[in-house]
């Protein structure tokens, strides 16, 4: 019987299997940031032990950092303390840190791939749920809790039960104005925010294979938003071309050796999955959410469901969400005014995302009274954007590019959406208060964000293309 991609990577990293229990899994890359690592390092200190393999851990501050005036002392005391602790702990244990103002600093899930730290066939963990992003390279990558961060620091291993396997195939060609973000929002809207619970998902099909690495990262990033443990895509020439030549990528003969192995990382034709689903790319249009979980989404020309269209068991949650969002049953979303637009995060803060936004607004002007934050995912993205003149395009249209960080993805730094305001956001979560207490979030792609930024309301980006 053949093996799936997930089986091949997982099985190659099992140190030992506990009978009727979890596997002890070896971890190739451990990524850390300032929020979930201080307690883990404190645990090591309490036990009097050091990081087992510091060369396999990489650190960068991202969640709590400001996105303006990063050369100044961080004003918020808690944020400053966490960033200082990360600096102190990484220095003490000999861990590579890309600190504030370092040319490689940025969101941890942007930094790993762009530096070649992320490579096909690896196991990768981080104290952050969106570690699933790295699955775009054919990795088994997943988020872990703080106690597990300590476990990996101490042993380079983690105990994990093996998830079930799901395969989602999307065939066909995505239409004009339809992006990877729309593809994954569509899948989540069909499966619900819990439809992937207990599974590790492999994405396949012609529509998936046609995506760039940035697009594939967006898809895998949001696997967690349907309850899955992670998502992955088999590496191919697109993957290999992306990795080759990056700072931490293999070189010379080592590259040839690794490449030969990476080319074996695909599901065998007779591999079995616990569940398989198929979708047609032609059914997908630009997507937008209307509720308080990523599964509450619709095509942009659609409408919020009527109550009778919602399964009876889901109606209390549905009604609560609409009350929070101040929406009504059956409401079309086209034309709904928004107050903020946010472009960035580990979902859509890469150079391709900034390009899409900038090229859309080129020759147009920011809508009156709308506040727009464009935040690159890393210093590398920021540098590339400036070298391509994207900052000037944005400035001419009335926008400003901020400095790297998680920013308004979550209310852990200064970039918060005020209570009652609507934010059209390229992030991954629209939970109550996710972007600030009382804030209301609508998830969409960078193109849909750009359309809203120049019109001041929810707009079908295809009207401009």
Structural write-up:
The chain is an alpha/beta fold and 465 residues long. The chain folds into three domains: 5-162 and 237-260, Aconitase, domain 3 (2-Layer Sandwich); 164-235 and 266-283, Aconitase, Domain 2 (3-Layer(aba) Sandwich); 287-463, Aconitase, domain 3 (2-Layer Sandwich), CATH 3.30.499.10. The protein contains 16 helices and 18 strands. α2 crosses α5 and α13 (351-361) packs parallel to α16. The longest helix is centred in the N-terminal third of the chain and has 17 residues, at 77-93. The protein is globular and about 55 Å long. The mean pLDDT is 97.
- Average per-residue pLDDT, rounded, comes to 97
Structural class: alpha/beta
Shape designation: globular
Q: Give the helix tally.
A: 16
Protein traits:
465 residues, alpha/beta, Aconitase, domain 3, Aconitase, Domain 2, five-stranded parallel sheet, four-stranded parallel sheet, globular
Secondary structure blueprint with pairings:
Blueprint: H1 5-11, E1 14-17, E2 23-26, E3 29-32, H2 38-47, E4 57-59, H3 77-93, E5 96-97, H4 108-114, E6 123-126, E7 140-143, H5 146-155, E8 157-160, E9 164-171, H6 180-191, E10 199-204, H7 206-209, H8 213-221, E11 230-232, H9 237-243, H10 252-262, E12 275-280, E13 287-289, E14 297-299, H11 315-325, E15 340-343, H12 345-348, H13 351-361, E16 371-374, H14 379-387, H15 390-396, E17 422-425, E18 440-443, H16 446-455
Parallel strand pairs: 3-4, 3-6, 4-5, 6-7, 9-10, 9-12, 10-11, 15-16, 15-17, 17-18
Antiparallel strand pairs: 1-2, 2-8, 13-14
Helix pairs in contact: 2-5, 6-8, 13-15, 13-16
């Amino acid at each position: 019987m053949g093996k799936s991609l997930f089986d091949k990577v997982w099985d190659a990293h099992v140190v030992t299997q506990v009978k009727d229990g979890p596997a002890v899994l070896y971890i190739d890359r451990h990524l850390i940031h300032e929020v979930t690592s201080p307690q883990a390092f404190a645990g090591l200190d309490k036990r009097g032990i050091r990081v087992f393999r510091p060369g396999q851990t990489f650190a960068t501050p991202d969640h709590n950092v400001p996105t303006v005036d990063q050369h100044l002392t961080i004003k918020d005391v808690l944020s400053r303390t966490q960033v200082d602790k990360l600096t102190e702990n990484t220095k003490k244990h000999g861990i590579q840190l890309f600190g504030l103002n370092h040319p490689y600093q940025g969101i941890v899930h942007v930094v790993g791939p762009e530096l070649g730290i992320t490579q096909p066939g690896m196991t990768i963990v981080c104290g952050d749920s969106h570690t699933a992003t790295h699955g775009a390279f054919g990795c088994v990558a997943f988020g872990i809790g703080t106690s597990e961060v300590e476990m990996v620091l101490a042993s380079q291993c983690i105990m994990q039960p093996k998830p079930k396997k799901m395969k989602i195939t999307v065939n066909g060609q995505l239409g004009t104005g339809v992006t990877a973000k729309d593809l994954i929002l569509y899948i989540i809207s069909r499966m619900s925010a819990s439809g992937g619970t207990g599974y590790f998902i492999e994405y396949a099909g012609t529509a998936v294979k046609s995506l760039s690495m940035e697009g594939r990262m967006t898809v895998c990033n949001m696997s967690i938003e349907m309850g899955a443990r992670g998502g992955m895509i088999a590496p191919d020439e697109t993957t290999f071309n992306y990795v080759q030549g990056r700072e931490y990528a293999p070189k010379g003969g080592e590259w040839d050796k690794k490449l030969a192995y990476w080319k074996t990382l695909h599901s065998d034709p007779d591999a079995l999955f616990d569940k398989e689903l198929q979708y047609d790319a032609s059914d997908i249009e630009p997507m937008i959410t209307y509720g308080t979980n990523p599964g509450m989404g619709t095509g942009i020309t659609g409408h919020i469901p009527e109550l009778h269209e919602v399964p009876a068991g889901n109606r209390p949650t549905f009604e609560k969400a609409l009350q929070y969002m101040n929406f009504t049953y059956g409401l079309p979303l086209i034309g709904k005014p928004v107050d903020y637009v946010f472009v960035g995060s580990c979902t859509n803060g890469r150079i391709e995302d900034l390009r899409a936004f900038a090229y859309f607004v080129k020759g147009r002007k920011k809508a009156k009274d709308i506040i727009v934050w464009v935040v690159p995912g890393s210093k590398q993205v920021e540098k590339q954007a400036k070298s391509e003149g994207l900052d000037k395009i944005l400035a001419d249209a009335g926008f400003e590019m901020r400095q790297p960080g998680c920013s308004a993805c979550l209310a852990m730094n200064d970039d918060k959406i005020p209570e009652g305001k609507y934010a059209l956001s390229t992030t991954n979560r629209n939970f109550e208060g996710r972007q600030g207490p009382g804030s209301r979030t609508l998830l969409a792609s960078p193109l849909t964000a750009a359309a809203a930024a120049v019109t001041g309301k929810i707009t079908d980006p295809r009207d401009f293309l």
